[in-house]
Amino acid sequence: MTEETKHETSTTELSSLDIAKPVQMTDSIIGQCMVEFDVCPLRAPITYNNKVYDCMVREREAVIRDRIHAEQWSIGEFDSVYIDAVRAFFIADTCRFGVLDMKTIQEDNFIRVTEVALTESAQLPVDCIVDSLAVKDYANVSHMLGKA
User: CA triplet 17, 19, 25: central angle to 5 degrees?
Assistant: First the structure.
């Protein structure tokens, strides 16, 4: 027996095909989104300019010049080079955040992700990333930076 569910959050509303059964963001669902669709759902959404962003995608790979700029920014902001600050700069410069649009199918005790897209794409400033990206999302977002 399969049951299709759509998960789409908007900056203003939440909707799904079955509002009584929203899809819980599990490690399995996050992993499927990252591996199969190159979209990283966030467990702790980021609010910026009164909009809520609950996923990210890498738009381009970082290059050496990005690292140089990131280290300069870290020194200017924190008087030292901190790897977390450098990584936050990479994230702000090479990634886009948005609203997760996801479709799933229930297969017995397993939820299979069938479609994922990022909507309402926005580039977030590095200060927002430093102040808002939850540690619980940091590892997954960092993984997306190096994903081939």
Answer: 90
Q: Is 148 exposed, middle or buried (0-12, 13-18, 19+ CB in 10 A)?
A: exposed
Q: What's the structural domain count of the chain? A: 1
Any domain includes 74: no
Residue range of the domain that includes 133: 2-59+96-146
Give the list of residues 6+ apart from residue 36 with CB closer than 8 angstroms, or none: 113, 116
pLDDT in tens, 17-68: 443 356 688 899 999 999 999 999 999 999 999 999 999 999 999 999 999 9
Asked whether residue 67 is assigned to any structural domain, the reply reads: no
**Domain membership flag for residue 80:** no
3-state helix, strand, coil in the chain (%, to 5): 40, 35, 25
